[in-house]
Amino acid sequence: MYYERVSKFLDKIEKEDTKIRAFIEIYYDDALAKAKELDKKVNEGKKLGKLAGKAIAIKNNIAIKGKLLSCASKMLENYIAPYNAHVIEKINAEDGIILGSTNLDEFACGSDTTNSAFFQTRNPLNIEYVPGGTSGGSAAAVAANFIDIALGSDTGGSIRCPASFCGVVGIKPTYGLVSRYGLSDTTMSLDQIGPITQSVNDAKLMLSVIAGKDERDQTTYRTQKMKLKYSGKPSIAIVKEFLDGADEQIIKNFHLLIEKLNIGGYNIKEVSIPTIKYAIPIYYLTVFAEFSSAMQKYDGLRYGKIDYILENINESVNELRGDKFGLEVKRRILLGTYITTQEYQKEWYGKTLSARAVLKKEIEFVLSKYDVLLGPTMSTLPWKIGEKSNPLEMYLADILTVPANLAGIPAGSVPFGKVGKFKPGIQILGNRFGEGKVFALMEEIEMLEVE
User: Fold this and answer.
1) What parts of the chain have a pLDDT lower than 50?
2) What is the pTM of this model?
3) How far is the C-alpha of 117 from the C-alpha of 106, rounded, in Å?
4) What is the residue extent of each domain of the chain?
5) How far apart are CA 136 and CA 134, in angstroms?
């Protein structure tokens, strides 16, 4: 039963992923062995886990013992993970079947999964377009029906952006709800692992498995704080700044949704969160500072491999980092190093932390009056591969997704409507540990019919 199902997924991947390029590595033997094990359990009448038979893919910045953990970088192109991430332990315990690892922007630096050191991933809805980033490989694998569920990581929208671009479901949980043990850090105060799926129900299922306290990650909380069920109609605040500058087609699609929710009896009000206009500089200055610190360990001694020794170790490390890191990774390291120097730290990083606190307070104030915030996930439709080469254009594309990470709150993207071949995402943000209300509205939107 499970063996046959997994075999079909693997056959489809082998035939069709040559044009999508969602996967960095496929675990043929391991996946089939796990499927055989589950079939044996069924025949013996043994109890199966919550994820029994689910075909799963993992973003290649999450550790799977004995498998390549490259972060899509030449720096780690031969690095094998020596242990399992917490989320992998949870998936294995609940009988999930991991089929492989997926492509990403190098060290999760990017907005469209064209910054991988190995190859670009394409959008299954139209292969001339990007899948979104940085978890684009995971979203593409789900959208192409290669798997049931994928895990991604979200620093400022890296689950929700590709979910929106590929027309699938994605959820960034409350910060601290899912352990980051085994995740390669991008920005430790923002990063969160979460699921990308074909349905809201599967997203809830996977989150129920991977959430919970992990003693190896002191930011995590016990699952008692998480409520995945909510009965009733959440009150909705539309943040007017979420529509500022959005494409006309995105706005039109969003207004169609609001009409349907009004007919459905939802309490909807428009609100303003003024500091959102500063979200991009707040976010990227935070990212640059924390990322430059996190990347110090890639020196060829602990991670990465120096193939040559120059006159001194400093020269060797500099040569290695110059050779193995891509342009966007170098840009973020240099900017982060600059703004955290003693000379500029107070002026840049200090003000960033203060502004982040103000934004968080404004968001929390609105969410004290309404159950959820609502808006488009992305202000644009997917762009063609190679269309955006200016890094500032890439940074600005994250304007609607970064506020949730800065505030540490849950945010989900669910497809609604259709624009050409694409299914734009609608984003729902909730209070800390308010995933139940977020999922409730996501489920409602998922069921709405569009003429």
Assistant:
1) none
2) 0.95
3) 6
4) 2-225
5) 5
